[in-house]
Design brief:
The complex is a heterodimer of chains A (about 400) and B (about 100). With about 400 residues, chain A is an alpha/beta fold. Chain A is built from seven helices and 26 strands. The mean pLDDT of chain B is about 90. Classes of the chains: A alpha/beta (about 400), B mainly alpha (about 100). The structure holds flavin-adenine dinucleotide (FAD).
Amino acid sequence: MRRLLILGAGTAGTIAANKLRRMLDADDWQITIVDQRGTHYYQPAFLFIPFGRYRPDKARRKASRLIPSGVTRVEGEIDRVDPDARRVALADGTVLPYDYLIIATGTSPHPEETPGMEGDWHGAVHSFYTFDDAVALRGALAGFTGGRLVVHISEMPIKCPVAPLEFTLLADAHLRERDIRDKVDITFVTPLSGAFTKPVASAAFGGMLDERGIAVEPDFMVESIDAEAHRLVSYDEREVPYDLLVTVPVNKGAAFVGRSGLGDELDFVPVDPHTLRHAAHPEIFAVGDAAAVPTSKAGAVAHFELDVFPENFVRIVAGEEPVESFDGHATCFIESGAGKAMLIDFNYDTEPLPGMFPVPALGPLPLLKESRFNHWGKLAFEPLYWSMLLPGRPLPLPAHMSMRGKRVPS
Amino acid sequence: MSTTTLAGREIHVDAEGFLTEYDEWDEALAAQLADQIGVALTPEHWDVIRFLRADYAETGQTATTRRVQAVGGFPVKQQFVLFPKKPGKKMSYIAGLPKPAGCV
Ligand SMILES: Cc1cc2nc3c(=O)[nH]c(=O)nc-3n(C[C@H](O)[C@H](O)[C@H](O)COP(=O)(O)OP(=O)(O)OC[C@H]3O[C@@H](n4cnc5c(N)ncnc54)[C@H](O)[C@@H]3O)c2cc1C
């Protein structure tokens, strides 16, 4: 029996387990998946929970029901990988040997990385990047009646890099609905030089913030938070005061990755961007947010990776060369408030561009433009996530990005 | 991608003026690039630039400010003093490397 061990049963690990169980012969392959939690969260819902527009319990399901029969589920905290002995140790002392290892332990927010941030957590300092944080922010936002609302990104990369922008636009719409928008100053504080990472999209998003009277504080690298004075302080000594701070803390990979000598300075796993294979340990792969590859950390990326990766994996274990190549494809809906959303589609080489998706000219989803269709698309995704994406059933979206339907602005 | 003439020779640059060919860079060029963005190079600057060049040769990616601190040993605060306002961009510009790609 050959042993495949998958670390992490989030979006990427669950898809990998479902697809590979169907593709690898049950007589030859034992597949095990480890996660510290018994609950699987639909993280895109964390964006909506703070506005009271999403019942929190709809965002989580029992993890065991998402793992297919024929895959052994182990609940426990991963403590260390010994890549030379090909063994994984859990915090409770369990040791799991493997022949092949897939690291899919994602990324999580680390408020303790920024001095002063943890001290006032769920006081005037909030976030929406975990289930508990999103629920706590719902209370804080309901009690917020005026003052300075600051939405803040601590450091790149973060998962779903458009989420803070979406939160800002939704907060603007939410405050208008409550008729208190004129009592609130909204500021978007970012370490980037504009509203987004790539120029064409950044200009489009910047315009949307501008139209809504939202101030942008760019190139802001936070050094600390003065929790008493309610101020963000940057390395170049700028200060941004707040009454309610909604921050995205530093996002890091799982600590065991670094402890095992497999990570970069943020505990992400450097792998080949096209095959997702570790250079020094060819039997180790990283998928989803855990991988240090130059594309967005997003569920959509995990999905496209896992359209390509399983076939390659099957070839590799049969002693053949990988042929498929992941292109960094990402597709993200961006909620912009009042029942509309934008859509972006890009990869390692091509930035988000205007046009129509997925069918050229017809769409129905316009790229880089606000539309009700996009909003419906985003809402429609949640049931598909549970019923199609996680079980690894085919969705009618191409794995590789296509230039068809896109316009390059001059 | 286009070309421009600097320090008396032709070099390949992207839309924002970052060098696209690792091997077209040398220290004379760095001094000119620094001059263009108003940075006067001291030995401390050179230490950072040399780290960035060596790290890129090893990893194929431009180090982020966090990596320059964690692996290079230059605190972020010092990077802001040496390359005011936008250390990530300024360091990589002078070192003849692409902008750090942590930002996707
Ligand atoms: C607010 C928000 C909004 C988002 N919106 C979107 C969106 O609209 N579209 C989109 O495509 N993506 C979105 N995302 C991103 C998306 O949720 C993630 O990119 C995706 O879930 C990544 O999957 P993953 O499997 O790599 O990581 P995860 O799904 O996070 O799974 C990682 C798993 O590893 C486990 N784990 C970690 N460390 C250990 C350990 N030491 N021991 C045991 N288990 C461990 C965790 O418990 C977890 O179950 C959003 C994310 C957030 C936070």
